[in-house]
Design brief:
The structure is a single chain. The protein is an alpha+beta fold. Helices cover 40% and strands 14% of the residues. It is rod-shaped and about 70 Å long.
């Protein structure tokens, strides 16, 4: 669901995130927020959520890398190194 609000920028460049939006995305006092600027837009996201998303997005890549490494490192041709 998209929620559109308007806020004013203060003299110091600060904005207030409306309470209902903070509550809906779980932003609390003391949380760290990441600002991402792209194509003239700004995305605000909690650091914790960004970390989780990154972990989820790279999970399949890490799993594939582990499978490839096992395939190469568990070959009988490499067992010769165990005797050295």
């Amino acid at each position: 669901m998209m929620d559109v609000k308007t806020v004013k920028v203060s003299e110091k460049g600060q904005i207030a995130i409306p309470a209902d939006i903070r509550q809906s995305v779980g932003i609390k006092q003391g949380d760290t927020i990441v600002l991402i600027q792209e194509d003239g837009r700004i995305l605000l996201q909690k650091v914790e959520r960004l970390r989780k998303n990154a972990k989820d997005e790279f999970h399949h890549l890490l799993k594939h890398s582990e499978e490839v490494a096992k395939k190469f490192w568990s070959s009988e041709a490499d067992d010769v190194w165990d005797t050295i």
